[in-house]
Amino acid sequence: MKTPASAHACGIVLVLLSLLAALQTTSAQKNDIDIYSLTVDSKVSSRFARTVVTSRVVNRADSAQEAVFQMELPKKAFITNFSMIIDGVTYPGNIKEKDAAQEQYSAAVARGESAGLVKTTGRKMEQFQVSVSVAPAAKVTFELVYEELLKRHLGVYELLLKVRPQQLVKHLQMDIHIFEPQGISFLETESTFMTSALANALTTSQNQTKAHIRFKPTISQQQKSAEQQDTVVDGSFIVRYDVNRTLSGGSIQIENGYFVHYFAPVGLPTMPKNVIFVIDKSGSMMGKKIQQTREALIKILDDLSPKDQFNFISFNGKATQWKPSLVQASADNVKEARDYATNIQAHGGTNINDAMLMATQLLEKANREEQLPAGSIPLIILLTDGDPTVGVTNPTRIQKNVQDAIGGQYSLFCLGFGFDVSYAFLEKLALDNGGLARRIYEDSDSALQLQDFYQEVANPLMTAVTFEYPSNSVEEVTQNNFRLFFKGSEVVVAGKLQGQSPDVLSAKVHGQQSMQNITFQTESSVTEQEEEFRSPKYIFHGFMERLWAYLTIQQLLEQMVSASDADKQVLKTQALGLSLNYSFVTPLTSMVVTKPEGQEQSQVAEKPVENGHAGFRFHSLGHGGPRLLETDPIARLPDITQAPAVILPLPGQNTDRLCVDIKHSEGPMNLFSDPDQGIEVTGQYEKKRAQFSWIQVTFKKPQLQVHASPEHVVVTRDRRNTAYRWKETLFSVMPNFLMTMDKAGVLMLRSQDKVTIGLLYWKGPGQGVRLLLQDTDHFSSHVNGTFGQFYQGVLWLPSAAADDSKRTLMVQGHNYPATREPKLDYQDGTPGIEFSCWSVKL
Fold this sequence. Notes:
Blueprint: E1 3-4, E2 22-23, E3 33-45, E4 48-59, E5 65-74, E6 78-86, E7 89-97, H1 98-110, E8 118-120, E9 125-134, E10 139-149, E11 157-163, E12 171-179, E13 184-191, E14 202-206, E15 210-215, H2 219-222, E16 235-243, E17 251-255, E18 258-263, E19 273-280, H3 288-303, E20 309-315, E21 319-321, E22 327-328, H4 331-342, H5 352-368, E23 377-384, H6 395-406, E24 411-417, H7 423-431, E25 437-440, H8 446-457, E26 460-468, E27 474-475, E28 481-486, E29 491-497, E30 504-513, E31 516-525, H9 526-534, H10 543-562, H11 565-581, E32 589-594, E33 602-606, E34 646-649, E35 657-661, E36 668-674, E37 679-686, E38 691-699, E39 704-708, E40 713-717, E41 720-724, E42 730-734, E43 737-741, E44 747-750, E45 756-762, E46 768-774, E47 794-797, E48 806-811, E49 814-825, E50 833-841
Parallel strand pairs: 3-12, 19-20, 19-23, 23-24, 24-25, 35-50
Antiparallel strand pairs: 1-14, 2-5, 3-4, 4-10, 5-9, 6-7, 6-10, 7-32, 8-9, 11-16, 12-15, 13-16, 13-42, 14-15, 17-18, 18-29, 20-21, 20-22, 26-28, 26-30, 27-29, 30-31, 32-33, 34-35, 36-37, 37-38, 38-39, 39-40, 40-41, 42-43, 43-44, 44-45, 45-46, 47-48, 48-49, 49-50
Helix pairs in contact: 3-4, 3-8, 5-6, 7-10, 10-11
Subcellular location: Secreted
Domain VIT: 19-148
InterPro entries: ITI_HC_C, ITIH, VIT, VWF_A, vWFA_dom_sf
């Protein structure tokens, strides 16, 4: 069954989330280097994704031209192959130990050639680039392959493809095949370049265990307009999904002598936390950083469970506790903590050492005084934006002091805000103490990044998780013990079956849940599993061995961060051997790209490593650089003509509309609420500025919240926050739901048999967030709210005066004077069109 992903495709029961790839391929002078074919083929087999990008170009000029192949891929992915076919001759990329490739790299740099092929280009992406000279009429085929194990994040896997061919392509096609033996529980797609004209080029088919997504636009569909040869295909394409789960020992899958064990049971209760927030308030945090930190802390406080305990330590040159001990997350304590967080001010130096030791002493004191409830989880969350400048400033000494103080009793999570902090320092600090590090990028969504990180650790479900397999069945198992397991994540263990292993592979997963030990048992038939993976054409065979190698390398590289010098060398040797054996470009290997004689003889591709202060920089590539919120000039219109707070299409009328302005409001308002539709719309109206500072739409099915402010739109699903800037094209298909935004910045939320709700940031006179409504005949008889009342028994009373421009509107027993007035219609964006409507003031 194939379903066009159009506005009418809201009913497809799909949702997808897994894989992260970004493509920006061959570019050259227009009409010279012509990309006549561009294909992206991604096969996801049991979370392991293999993506093949193939670009075919021809030089249509009368002289030699340079063709540039550019592509973005996930930071967590490993390149496994690259080749160029020129005049029938294949020029491969050879993967070598980094030291062995260094001589070629240095020689190329000495010649002034651009030797580095891979660089970081975004939060999650790396850019691969190769150029080659192409003779007149000659053809070149570029092919790049990379692999990645998809990680479950807040309940979903994600695949991101950035498609930017920069020209019309005769044969443009993306195919994504997903095979999950556990069964696909939901699937969704999202794009920043899809429009209604392109919707029919996207098809999705799905059954219980398989999904196929294809995007294949024609030349005419790619064109911006009939007169323009520019392509509209320029942006991101995202696929999200999850798999079916039960309260069990997980799923063991077996292929070609290797196994992978996925563990993420549902139905476990959340364990209470004892969390200490250690917040940097040094002078470098001044301005937007501290403002966003305060905003995030206030939201995080609201998410604390009443069973949790918490405290704050803020630090600059001196560390200060909010309370002398941990306090319960009661309503009163949370309210007081919100006031404290609101008033954190930034100034002074950075004393990380004293702040961290104060946090451990606080937990030790609580432990001695038996204030930590049995079965609760102690966590320390550090947020800093710079290196230590006060007190102990030697990073190695701080790391040792903190590790000695924690003593393996607590988990430490480190957040580095921006690029003035050594990420390598924070990463080791966290990994030494059973946690992880994360960089928070300075952007308009920094507060959301902080909130999302907290959501990852907000719900611990098990501690001391250990996987046990029969000694006569398996060998070479990846990491099989984990300190913590959080809701929305997944624990993955892979290994090799022994040659004479039994036909049934059994496993036990041990852990602690609150105050009791818990054990899950599961088993899998080797013969049945081998058969399930043997025949399908839509998976890439032999993937499980490569999955095992990929996971082993990733874990060895992580262990190297906190290992001693002697152990580090052993781990490096193991990781290097696997990288070379399985042809992975990792931080320990390089790929040497060969070229035809007479051109640069070789270029070297090395995997960037995020450490130090310069581990990440934005590079502007075509249209791919960071973009600021647009500030289009406002067309000047007479001040007497303003846009109303809302324009309401009246029930039963085709042309006449009601303009409603708000004169009296306090706090958040209930604008619409329809329990039968499962929709609620709230907003905050500012009387002084005569505008909404925010509007929020909440849907019950799917469970979705859309929060619109002048800065951006934030969509929240299952604790996941995604921010979108106004006027960024968006086309998101979910089960029974379609969310789109056009270049004018009009965000539309559509669902079958429901009211269609629109949002936009109006920049004209009376600027602010505005609301649009369509299909209002779908409102039920139970609709209510400030604007909802106008869809409940509205009655126009006869005019007592001769003035036809004045009437009275009766709404639920209340009479509202209505006046015929000129207003600005904001519904198509700035500058607006003047029209006449019945104006009511509330």
